[in-house]
Amino acid sequence: MDNEKIISELNFKAVRSSGAGGQNVNKVSSKVVLSFDLEASHVLSNDEKTLLRENLSARLTSENILILNCDEDRSQLKNKEIVIKRFLEIIKKGLFVPKVRKATRIPKSVIKKRIKDKKNISDLKQSRKRPNLD
């Protein structure tokens, strides 16, 4: 996956940010809304698209569009950088395939050692008991 190519497929929209900020909030469109159409992407292969659809199913809309918002900073440019960084991180995590676990047997020496240790502890506890004088 090439970051530059995938960034070129992103759509950005500047919106007026909500919340506190005085007059600046009413005048400046500093909030950035990023949208990425997964189905229309030419950078990602079909296998990658399927993997992302499965892993990011909670974040995608019904049309398989990923939407991210950022209004952390007063600067539109900084918000755009933050949302791009967040997007690339989400895509990277969505494309991650965990290693398949190989089942292994417990070695006989480990089993013998465990049983031997249990026997030693049992003998130790038996020796602490009062002798039976019957």
Please supply descriptive tags for the structure shown above.
single chain; 134 residues; three-stranded antiparallel β-sheet; alpha+beta
General description of the model:
The chain is α+β, with helices and mostly antiparallel strands and 134 residues long. 46% of the residues lie in helices and 13% in strands. It is built from five helices and three strands. It has helices spanning 3-8, 23-27, 46-55, 76-94, 108-128; strands at 11-15, 31-37, 65-70. The chain has a three-stranded antiparallel sheet, covered by helices on one side. The termini are far apart.
The count of helical stretches stands at 5
What is the N-to-C order of secondary-structure elements (H for helix, E for strand)?
HEHEHEHH
Structural class: alpha+beta
The total of beta strands comes to: 3
Strand content bin: 5-15%
Distance between the termini: 81 Å
Task: List unreliable stretches of 5+ residues.
Answer: none
Q: Strand arrangement, largest sheet?
A: 1-2-3
Kindly report the average pLDDT value. 89
Sheet with the most strands? 3 strands, antiparallel
Estimate the helix proportion, in percent.
40-55%
Provide the gyration radius in Å.
29 Å
| Net shape | elongated
